[in-house]
Amino acid sequence: MSFALAEIRTTAPLRYKVSDPFVAEVIATVAAEFGLSEREMMVHSRDHRIWKPRMAAMYYARLLTSCSLPELGRVFGGRSHTTVLRAFRRCREMIDADEMWAGRMDRLLVKLVEKIVTPRG
């Protein structure tokens, strides 16, 4: 593990201030699926171990919440709304082109929908 990732894993958890609190659930669920921390999802990195999960989280945050693109960009480390839109479109392309990615995204969707419909008690 690189020094930068080790440092990120030891910092405090993120706080989300968005109109739809389910965004935090999306980020936490996707991070857990890929073996990352929530903070790692926000790092400005092009490492595929980080950008693919971040892209998946952006995809489901856009698909399953009422947050605007600019709001999601702010949540995902201060990115622009066009970055979120590009991630959404690229993830959709990958789902259509890659069966393994599509299967993983399907599993994530099942987990996220279960969190939506399961009463918290």
From TrEMBL:
Lineage: superkingdom: Bacteria
Biological-process GO terms, alphabetical: DNA replication initiation; regulation of DNA replication
Occurrences of domain Chromosomal replication initiator DnaA C-terminal (ranges): 22-91
GO MF terms, alphabetically ordered: ATP binding; DNA replication origin binding
Pfam families: Bac_DnaA_C
Assigned GO CC terms: plasma membrane
Gene3D superfamilies documented for this protein: 1.10.1750.10
Annotated SMART domains: Bac_DnaA_C
Protein name, as recorded: Chromosomal replication initiator DnaA C-terminal domain-containing protein
Organism: Magnetospirillum aberrantis SpK
